[in-house]
């Protein structure tokens, strides 16, 4: 099963292309958040955590997991081409993540772009940046040395409390969240199923270049992307068969019918334990 997982990851890594960008910016700031989340809403012992990164420029920001960010960096430098299997395994471990998406804010202007790769397909959907109606409250506290203020909002089935600071006057935050008069330092839903906490804020000495090409992504709806993601997660073999149809570069996986049945049973059990997405509606 480990070899099968590595093969699926290799499929995703080798099909990445680099195209001319439609948007460019320089990331001058980096925020490290620790996300603590409960993937199984019925099991409090399922709580786990992952490091998330927010890069911010003058006009554009990118939010993703650390693993996703490192994988994207390897794509850009093409360091994975020709890698030996021991090296590949080490890099696969380094870029391991439960969150394969990236969220770009202000591409295009006043929009949020949610991107996700499913096999060969780079998919993207857009939403208005003004998704959130915030209630700013008088309570204050100090977080990581920053004076912060409390705010509340409701988003897709969850009630959230945020703590933001105007000492970093950048209207941004983890995931899709933004719209407050400062950077969000902490964010949690009322059940504490998703808790983002700032670990570090950095002003980058050497800004990182961002290039974003609309042509690299297939624009779709949120509903369609979530449906394709669900189909892939439930049966990656069928998704691979569909991807091979009409493609000149077919990918096959040598696996016996028994191994396939066992893997699908394992997938079903895992999905049953991952029943608590950040967006419930």
UniProtKB/TrEMBL annotation:
What are the entry keywords? Signal
Tell me the Pfam families matching this sequence.
Porph_ging
Please verify whether the record's keywords include Signal: yes
Signal sequence, renumbered to the chain: 1-19
Note the superkingdom of the native organism.
Bacteria
This protein's name? GLPGLI family protein
- In its UniProt entry, the species of origin is given as Salinimicrobium marinum
